[in-house]
User: What shape does this take?
Amino acid sequence: MSFTKEEIIQTLKKRGLRVTPQRYGVYANLLQRQDHPSAEELLLDLNQAAPTSSQATVYSSLKALQSAGLIREVLLEEGVCRYDANTDPHHHFRCHHCGAIEDIAWEQFPPVDLAQLRPGLQGERYEVTVHGICEKCDAQNP
Amino acid sequence: MSFTKEEIIQTLKKRGLRVTPQRYGVYANLLQRQDHPSAEELLLDLNQAAPTSSQATVYSSLKALQSAGLIREVLLEEGVCRYDANTDPHHHFRCHHCGAIEDIAWEQFPPVDLAQLRPGLQGERYEVTVHGICEKCDAQNP
DNA sequence: CTTTGTGCAAACGATTTGCAGGATG
DNA sequence: CATCCTGCAAATCGTTTGCACAAAG
Assistant: This one.
């Protein structure tokens, strides 16, 4: 799951995106993270050492990367939109105590037959969302 | 799926909620709807004939009903939170064209074994979200 | 050099909050 | 009659937008 600077740049170009330091930063950051940061968390991380990107630019980079199919939104809690550079199908686990999100391998769960839906509905993709407690919060629990 | 006025009132009281016209209205409305309205859609519907409830009250009623376990949030799209008076476990289908949401019976899909999660994660509940096209949008499609 | 991206600040839509008056149990 | 709810308007949060300048190809 490690990418060279050059690989990332080529990926961006291949999708027709101009390569700017900010856009590169957003995508590279997302690629090397295993959590699913919100736009604000990303912004904080990117500007941690030195300011590299403005709020508006992070949002627009995320939109550009998303319409290019390089990242996707993850909706697991109210109010915030999180982002995921893993575009392969997979499921999600969310700790309802600390909010941590973790990927679950696609093969982990039995496949769902979308042809079983009631006539009229055409299912195209699906995902399983598991809600529970992660080890960290489980340990702290009263 | 039909409830008498008295039943609804008793349910509210049983959960320790005071019965006010506004709160009753929100819950009764949700119970008789099959879609999953947002707070704003609910507000519009409630005030359609005559003004019965303010924006702030609808939001606070929803919060009260939710913490009483009578309704639940449904998160399927960015930006809005929808509400569901069906608290039994079930899955969701969402048409990515018109945004319509429909319940899918729990038995429709093979059960997921939450014990299979990686050690450390304690799954408590899960649901399947299917994205696709509904019949109405399928017919209109080019 | 043409097109697209950036940064700022103001605008926005959904939800929340503070508070005074009103209704519930 | 003590407690909790309602309505209003202002406040807040995440996200979007308009626009002048800067950078990418």
